[in-house]
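INFO batch 0412 | record 1 of 1 | parsing
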Amino acid sequence: MRSSLSIYCLWLIPLVKAFQTNVKTKCSSRMARPTAISHSFHDADDDDIFYNKSPTEQTYRVGDSGNTNHAQSHFFSRNSLASFAADKPLFRKLCRDAGITRPSKIQNLAWPVLFQGKNAIIADQTGSGKTLAYLLPLLNRSFNSKASPAIIVLAPTAELADQIKVVCDKLTVPSVVLTATGQYATNIRDQIRMLQQKKSYDVLISTPGRIATILRTRQAGLDLSRVQAVVLDEVDILLVDETFGPQLRTLGAALQTTPQFVFVTATLPNSVIETVQREFPDVQVVKGPGLHRVAMTVEERLIDVSVPPQYNRDPKYCFEVKAKELMAALRKNRCRRTLIFCNTVESCRQVENLLKRKDRSERVNKIYTYHGAMTPEARRENLAEFVRQEQDIDSLLICTDRAARGVDFAASPVDHVVIFDFPKDPAEYIRRVGRTARAGRKGTTTVLAYGWQLPIARGIMQSGQLNDQDLEKFTEDDKDGSESLEYRAVNRKRTVRKKKGVTGQESMREHIAGGKLWGDSSRP
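INFO prediction complete | emitting tokens
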């Protein structure tokens, strides 16, 4: 007989389809801030009052409070750890291992909900401490359990799974990562062998595809009969993925109990809330004060790169204008680490070629790339070099939105973010900017925009957040004709020539590693 939970988990199949349809038909409401909040605390209300004040009033309020550390005061909660489970030895140990002396705002808001075992949506800006916000209460709840694993965390990308693993390691919590790529990835046979030999672990971290594949394998050694909590990290991305529904159905069939469900996101469209609430009417919505807001410690600079109308359809001319402003911004903002965001692989390569031509010996900047046309190994190597760069030379990482999700630069903070291509999705604007000024630190963002993009960027910068009016301007009707040229996807025919004695797969890997897969004519 199929377990009650396996039937229970089938909710996501129709909901994923409904969500995807809703997203396509209601583009203008994709990131509208929800009006109904199921759960609120004094900290969140207090910050709403603060953010609604003018910059002058904000400065006065902070100065009047006697708090000299503006950034830290709006990252950390005013409550202490004593208001949590401070009497529990495990809690004290976890906080000590993670170096936590004071909870962040979202950690303070999430604790009472998750510790009571309630289903919840946890939403706050990037860099706000969401991973610890759900791990701390869930681990404390499952402390007396002999289940292995007690917690399953599903992540849309291997990069995010790796980041969650790092947090578990800091907490000295036994954990296992199951991904096809990434830092902890191995082939599926080795992963099955590891699961069979692993005696006890608390947290299982995986992408939906890999855990579904392993569960369909006989004698995989993965027993999920006593799982107490299932976390869907970056749930807004998981719901858009058409393959996610069937993968979760496979997971649901392996579960024998009704676990606590936690949905985590940095952006909270109304469609996500509606989708989850249809199956979980009692779900608690916990919103951090920074949701859909740019961090207060970010200094934003907007550069107009508009061109005369006659050049709107000349991609070369448009790129030259943006390239000139990019070089000026890099000269003006000399800092240790800079991220340059592009919308496509083609655009990444154009920027890479530009910077390397300007500094062939890399005496001024060390240039790295990070995008989907690279092998996972090449991405990991470039990211590691970018993070540990300790020479007296600035590092630049040219990337797509892959680096805006699941890559944590906490150990080596990013000082400057350049949005070279204005994002096509409003959620990505917040995510890109959120790569700097994390955990209360300071940072700078330079935004290159033109035409229809300018009023949107100005509106976000002036208000410090995305609102319904901004979202409506991201619809196709408001974009000019030049957008399709600048942001078109790379649809060129793949031209891969095989070498003698080399298999097609090996040849493909070589071309990917060398950046030649797409036949980019702009490469020198």
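INFO post-check: The longest strand covers residues 298-304.
INFO record closed
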